[in-house]
Amino acid sequence: MVNAPRLTVSPHAFPKRAGSDPVAGPVGWRVSDGPVGYDAAVAWMEARADAIARGAAPECVWLLEHPPLYTAGTSARPGDLVAPGRFPVHATGRGGQYTYHGPGQRVAYVMLDLDRRSRDLRAYVASLEAWLIATLDAFNVRAERREDRVGVWVRRPEKGPGVEDKIAAIGIRVRRWVSFHGISLNVEPDLSHFDGIVPCGVREHGVTSLVDLGLPVSLAEVDMHLRAAFEAIFGATAMEGAETSD
Q: Which residue of the set 49, 52, 89, 200 is catalytic?
């Protein structure tokens, strides 16, 4: 067990502007214990994002797992779907290319009101990257961002000079200045499931996970550090009821 860190405010802080939120209170924090179907998750996100935009609900982060599936972002290239019959493929409105989701991967859907924080989408993505990097640092994993490719990467010198593997992906969508979709962090997924796609269109590098790096941690431990690191960047959270729809 890794103890939760006490984090100071991150240099990538992405706070609400003072007095700007008509829905008082912290960001809602939801955790689903069982797998959640992709279509059900998207429907829930879209409804929550709409409520946030109308000032009828607080911002929200939803942690979950999906059953094995591929998603195709708005920049997905048909040739990057290597095994089209392996798992269901869901076209999605988020940015990016093909991504895998499945058991052992922690997905965090992030619904924040960027109109009341900042409309700078580059800064928002950088804050998501910083959130993942801080979470991984709690497990003594040095993860890094790259200017030429979105996501979070780990150097693998034991595999050869210059080899890097992706440990976390980012794909967002914004509607009425409320974000949805979000991040995925590989904890203990079956890495062979990524073989059916070219993940995020990057052929030169592979994928890894915390377990692949020799760290057999649980989703509960990862969730604890995700929450602490999130609060250092985006502000306080409060638990909401879990969604377990399939």
A: 200
